[in-house]
Amino acid sequence: MQWTLVIPLKPLARAKSRLSGTAADALRPGLALAFALDTVAAALASPAVGDVAVVTGDALAGRELAALGADIIADEPGGGLNAALVHAVAVVRASRPDRAVAALNADLPALRPAELNRVLNSAAEFPRAFLADAAGIGTTLLAARPPHALLPEFGADSRARHRTSGAHELGLAGVDSVRQDVDTGEDLRAALSLGVGPRTAAATARLLIPGQ
Asked: How many CB atoms lie within 10 A of CB 194?
């Protein structure tokens, strides 16, 4: 099964505020863009991924990600993350109603194509499925086979909300790179220990990160 990945990305100027203890205000937009670029590059290299659509209202990010091969969907609703995902899936399925879709976080800089492939192949066994994040509270991937709606419930305690919504939780081991999103300095250290993509490696080279 081939998937369209829908990756939401907020404006870079407002991204990654929880990294304030690790990176100065001037550096965080560049970090957020590096995370997204490495995430998209790894996703496009996964055999199960047919294409990647990034939903964003950030012009710079849109240009950079389009250059990698991502399709860019404008964040028209302006109603937050879940509204952006619903809008993007509607755009994708307007022309391809039988397309399997999966929402993927944009902050997975250690993402490995082979691990993503395992997750998507496992998700294909269920109408809707999700993968919890490394903290065990949030969600890094939510998938829906056609004709099922995605029904995203990202935000606080999204793991519990996606489970309540009827999505199957994927209990896969050995897919740490798909679980390790980056919101805090501790998350960034964990991602660096897994091995991040080249853009994140360059963007973090100037940071003083305890434990690295």
From this structure: 16
Tens-digit pLDDT profile for residues 93-142: 999 999 999 999 999 999 999 999 999 999 999 999 999 999 999 999 99
- CA 140 from centre of chain: 6
Of 118, 108, 168, nearest in space to 142 by CA = 168
User: Tens of pLDDT along 69-101?
Assistant: 999 999 876 689 999 999 999 999 999 999 999
What predicted TM-score, i.e. pTM, was given to this entire model? 0.94
Given 3.30.230.10, 3.40.50.720, 3.40.50.1240, 3.90.550.10, which CATH number is that of 3-204?
3.90.550.10
